[in-house]
Design brief:
Elements lengths: L5 E6 L2 E5 L2 H21 L5 H32 L4 E7 L2 E6 L6 H28 L4 H21 L7 H14 L2 H28 L3 H22 L1
Helix pairs in contact: 1-2, 2-3, 2-4, 3-4, 3-5, 5-6, 6-7
Length: 233
């Protein structure tokens, strides 16, 4: 685990920690929910209700991200791959699996289980949304968490290495070519393309006046581009 991370607890012997950047995104998401999302959806709440439900929703969202990463890590342990830690940071979470899978199938399963976990969570919160429709705070949290987990699953299935979808793509190429190095290079080219598309989309949104989404998407593209270079190397 990174030296500047704050260790919280362990699950199956895997340390779970927070990078200091996590606090920034926690505050940002809470503010966006309390000041923008919930006031539009639920107009009769008090200010205290908006901020309380927003803070709880943000915490539950990051619990969902931890479960997403635990999906990767637990399956990696089943394949006898060492998992050093899971760290929450500004873009979500990282499972630090310190060895490459030994075959294409294990790569596919380890990569796919994360988005699958998010899909299952989206389904669970959708059920909560229906069951607790009459209890507004629980309904509000469930509605948002169902949507955000579905979004997280779809985003991670984008075939941009090293996102989960990019690793799924690499596993397929690996299975076809039987060459991990070649599969990594091909997945890396696609990862570069996806990163540049994010950057261009972000710049286009900036020119349209959508500063928040434009900067965020362009930043994700820049981060993904750097991650591709590091992973391929």
């Amino acid at each position: 685990m990174k030296n500047n991370s704050i260790q919280l607890f362990k699950v199956f012997g895997i340390p779970i920690g927070l990078d200091p950047s996590w606090f920034l995104v926690f505050v940002l998401i809470t503010w966006l929910l309390a000041a923008n999302y919930f006031p539009v959806e639920f107009k009769n709440w008090t200010t205290l209700q908006y901020w309380t439900v927003a803070a709880v929703t943000s915490l539950l969202f990051f619990v969902c991200v931890i479960l997403h990463e635990l999906g990767h890590s637990i399956v990696a342990l089943m394949y006898k791959l060492p998992v050093k830690s899971i760290t929450m940071y500004i873009f979500g979470g990282i499972s630090e699996i310190t060895a490459e899978p030994t075959n294409a199938m294990s790569e596919f399963v380890i990569a796919f289980v994360g988005p699958f976990t998010s899909l299952v969570l989206a389904g669970i919160f959708y059920v909560f949304e229906i069951v607790f429709a009459s209890i507004t705070p629980i309904y509000a949290m469930s509605k948002y968490l169902a949507l955000i987990n579905l979004t997280l699953a779809i985003f991670n299935l984008i075939p941009g290495f090293p996102l989960d979808g990019g690793r799924v793509f690499r596993s397929i190429v690996w299975g076809i070519t039987h060459n991990l190095r070649r599969a990594t290079e091909i997945a890396g080219y696609l990862g570069h393309a996806v990163a540049f598309l994010f950057i261009m989309l972000g710049v286009w949104l900036l020119f349209q006046g959508d500063w928040i989404n434009g900067l965020w998407i362009a930043f994700i593209g820049w981060f993904l581009e750097n991650a591709v270079v590091g992973q391929v190397q």
